[in-house]
């Protein structure tokens, strides 16, 4: 069936780099298998793969669903048991693409249905996708097309608010407004989301053009509005980074690249317990001036592209009840990324595209769907709002 599809222009350019990948998608995750694929696996009776499928793919007993119907065994490094020494998938090699489960078929692609329209995008959790998404100095552009659509979608949002499309366009316009710093854009986005959440939906039609005009005005004069005083202080940033370190130590996260970044962050800001907070704050300030600012003065499109992709991928803003919550989560992600990059700048005595990409990719891959990390973000936000 043909459907209207909205997607970033980068989408068509992606192709998996297989064995050349720094962080194969078959490692570090719980691997869920959908019901349709599990039933296909049970019908395979010949070849060496048949026995492996019986042994290594077992029913999910805790809260099973059609999409989370079975699971694939992983080894002690959390690698998929079907990943061979060349980092290639034995299911794909022996049975073909049609036998891949939904997770493996789609990743890093995401397909969502919003009302009658389909949206496709990529996740920065894949290093190759992250390069395409983040390193484009011209920013993320979108294209609308008609496409044949046989495959089912992964996410469905049948009920969005009455002004969803207008809001979404404006949210992306704010994030792509290069007249202002990336922090100013985020803060103005917060003002807009609060205004929309506290206005009755019946008044949106009349109020929305006014709010857009007010927010554009603040954005264009952000420096004179002194908007930066609403950002966390350096001491607060150290505290936020410290919570990330504690989390990484408490939970086994099984991502070598992420663990390397966190170890470097800890050393870069001397957060290993032996030094005082004042010393860490001093290192943080130095890194902002010497490494973070000079790098992002040239390349703040990397952070812009991250934020725009986040908004598009998460289909924001979704529900009036949670506009502010959705915004605060986005803001927290940004703070974790910014704080860690400042720490990495201190460790490496500089920043490069490679360092920035490695952290954003591995952070997203490791924590994007981690329920405990979401709880941590919630607790930080609740304390901030007290
Ligand atoms: S993470 Fe991306 S590039 Fe790497 S193996 Fe998976 S899809 Fe391919």
Structural class: alpha/beta
Estimate nothing, just give the exact number of structural domains: 3
| Distinct compounds present | iron/sulfur cluster
Q: What is the number of beta strands?
A: 8
Please give the radius of gyration in angstroms: 22 Å
How is the main sheet built?
5 strands, mixed
Unreliable stretches? none
Q: What would your notes on this structure say?
A:
- The protein is of the alpha/beta class.
- The chain folds into 3 domains: 26-106, no CATH class; 164-224; 230-385, no CATH class.
- The protein is built from 16 helices and 8 strands.
- The protein has helices spanning 35-42, 48-56, 90-95, 102-106, 127-134, 164-175, 182-197, 204-220, 222-225, 234-250, 256-268, 277-299, 301-313, 323-348, 353-367, 371-385; strands spanning 2-8, 31-33, 57-59, 70-72, 109-114, 117-122, 142-148, 155-157.
- The chain has a 5-stranded mixed beta sheet with strand order 7-1-6-5-8. A 3-stranded antiparallel beta sheet has the order 2-4-3.
- A hairpin with a 2-residue loop joins strand 5 (109-114) and strand 6 (117-122).
- The termini are far apart.
- The model has no long low-confidence stretch (mean pLDDT 89).
- It binds iron/sulfur cluster.
- Residues 16-18, 21, 23-25, 107-108, 126-128 line the site of iron/sulfur cluster.
């Amino acid at each position: 069936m043909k459907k209207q599809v909205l997607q970033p222009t980068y989408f068509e350019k992606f192709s998996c780099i297989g064995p050349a990948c720094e962080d194969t998608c078959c490692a570090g995750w719980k691997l869920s298998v959908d019901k349709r694929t599990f039933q296909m696996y049970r019908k395979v009776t010949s070849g060496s793969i048949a026995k492996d499928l019986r042994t290594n793919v077992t029913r999910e007993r805790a809260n099973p669903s059609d999409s989370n119907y079975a699971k694939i065994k992983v080894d002690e490094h959390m690698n998929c048991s079907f990943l061979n020494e060349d980092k290639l998938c034995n299911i794909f090699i022996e049975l073909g693409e049609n036998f891949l489960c939904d997770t493996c078929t789609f990743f890093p692609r995401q397909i969502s249905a919003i009302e009658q329209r389909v949206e496709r995008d990529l996740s920065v959790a894949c290093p190759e996708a992250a390069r395409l998404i983040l390193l484009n100095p011209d920013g993320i552009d979108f294209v609308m097309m008609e496409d044949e659509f046989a495959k089912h979608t992964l996410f469905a949002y049948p009920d969005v608010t009455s002004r969803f499309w207008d809001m979404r366009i404006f949210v992306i316009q704010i994030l792509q407004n290069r007249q202002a710093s990336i922090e100013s854009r985020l803060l103005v986005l917060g003002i807009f989301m609060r205004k929309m959440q506290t206005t009755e939906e019946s008044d949106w039609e009349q109020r929305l053009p006014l709010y857009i005009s007010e927010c554009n005005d603040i954005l264009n004069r952000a420096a004179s509005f002194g908007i930066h005083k609403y950002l966390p202080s350096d001491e607060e940033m150290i505290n936020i980074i410290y919570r990330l370190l504690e989390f990484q130590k408490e939970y086994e996260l099984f991502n070598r690249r992420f663990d390397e970044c966190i170890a470097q962050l800890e050393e870069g800001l001397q957060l290993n317990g032996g030094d005082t907070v004042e010393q860490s704050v001093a290192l943080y300030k130095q890194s902002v001036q010497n490494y973070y600012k000079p790098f992002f003065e040239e390349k703040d499109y990397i952070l812009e592209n991250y934020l725009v992709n986040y908004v598009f991928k998460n289909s924001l803003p979704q529900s009036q009840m949670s506009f502010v919550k959705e915004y605060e989560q986005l803001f927290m992600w940004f703070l974790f990324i910014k704080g860690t990059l400042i720490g990495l700048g201190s460790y490496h005595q500089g920043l490069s595209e490679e360092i920035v990409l490695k952290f954003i990719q591995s952070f997203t891959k490791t924590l994007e769907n981690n329920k405990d990390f979401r709880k941590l973000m919630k607790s930080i936000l609740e304390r901030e709002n007290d």
